[in-house]
Structure formats: structure tokens, C-alpha cells
Automatic annotation (TrEMBL):
<dbReference type="Pfam" id="PF03831">
    <property type="entry name" value="YjdM"/>
</dbReference>
<dbReference type="InterPro" id="IPR013988">
    <property type="entry name" value="YjdM_C"/>
</dbReference>
<keyword id="KW-0378">Hydrolase</keyword>
<protein>
    <submittedName>
        <fullName>Phosphonoacetate hydrolase</fullName>
    </submittedName>
</protein>
<dbReference type="GO" id="GO:0016787">
    <property type="term" value="F:hydrolase activity"/>
</dbReference>
<feature type="domain" description="Protein YjdM C-terminal">
    <location>
        <begin position="102"/>
        <end position="168"/>
    </location>
</feature>
Length: 170
């Protein structure tokens, strides 16, 4: 079996795809899994030209979300423009940003795995450092019960950050 997104012949992990039917998942390699939650390498994701046509809706959703994250690249915008999804799958793709309510200081929807930048110095409670303005926080996690909070790593420590003090990096 190969990775649902990049077709790599590598060990696979069944990765849940949030925002849709319970138990929806796709079999992904470690590289794809790491980059979905972290900083994506645009060259790796050119594989989405094939993956976006998968018959597995979960794979289509992951491909569409990654194309959206890579929208600063012409090739990703071109592929996203070619992508056709039925209404249910399109709603699934957009479900995280619409339903989570997590928004940055400018009102831009935040999604799991986004990169944000701190817009002010933040003293970290319980730690002996201050998270400095301009610090990039990669691969954020959304706090499910509180749209005003996200989690991320700063100086190697996992912290909770108020969304009003971040700006989504595009």
C-alpha cells in the first residue's frame, strides 16, 4: 500500500480527517503527516495533482486543505481552481475554519497546523521566559472548547496562546 497523498512506498499511519464523518481517515506516510501539522515543503506537495482526484473523500479533503495552505504558490492555486468536489465534500473541507471559531487578531480563520506570528511580547506563565513579538509559532493546535485559545511550541515549550495576540502567516 502507498501513501494516499504522495504515493510513497513507506510505513503508513491511519490519519483521522477532522470535520467530517466519524472515523474518516487516510493512510499517510510520516512525511505527509508531519507536514500537514507542521511547515509544508511546497516541492513535496506537487503530488496533490494526482491525490486531489482520489475516490476517497478523506484524501480529497486533505488535498484541498493542503492546496489552500499552499495558495501563495501559482501551481497550488491552479490545482485548487481545477478541483471539483461535491457539496458534502466541499463543506467538509471548509468545516474546521467555519465551525471552530478560532480567528487571529485580524479576524482571519485559523486552522489546525497553521503558522502564526506573535504580535506582542507575551510573558509565559510558569516559565522563565517571554515569548517575543514576531516569533513564528508553527503547526498550531486549536483548543476545541475555547475559540480564544490555541496551542503551540515556543522555545521548545508547549504553551496556550490567546488568539487576539497572533496573526496568521500566509
Amino acid at each position: 500500500m502507498t501513501c494516499a497523498l504522495c504515493s510513497a512506498d513507506a510505513p503508513l499511519t491511519d490519519t483521522p480527517v477532522t470535520g467530517g464523518p466519524d472515523g474518516a481517515s487516510a493512510a499517510l506516510c510520516g512525511t505527509c503527516t508531519d507536514q500537514i501539522t507542521g511547515t509544508p515543503d511546497p516541492d513535496h506537495w506537487r503530488c496533490l495533482a494526482a491525490a486531489m482526484w482520489s475516490e476517497n473523500a478523506a484524501t480529497q479533503v486533505l488535498a484541498a486543505r493542503m492546496l489552500d495552505r499552499l495558495s501563495e504558490h501559482d501551481w497550488a492555486r491552479d490545482l485548487a481552481g481545477q478541483l471539483w468536489l461535491d457539496d458534502d465534500t466541499r463543506a467538509w473541507v471548509e468545516n474546521i475554519a467555519r465551525d471552530s471559531g478560532h480567528r487571529d487578531s485580524n479576524g482571519v480563520p485559523l486552522m489546525q497546523g497553521d503558522t502564526v506570528v506573535l504580535i506582542k511580547d507575551l510573558p509565559v506563565k510558569g516559565a522563565s521566559f517571554t515569548a517575543k513579538r514576531g516569533t513564528a509559532v508553527r503547526g498550531i493546535s486549536l483548543v476545541p472548547d475555547n475559540p480564544a485559545h490555541i496551542e503551540g511550541r515556543v522555545e521548545g515549550q508547549r504553551i496556550v496562546i490567546l488568539t487576539e495576540f497572533v496573526k496568521k502567516r500566509i
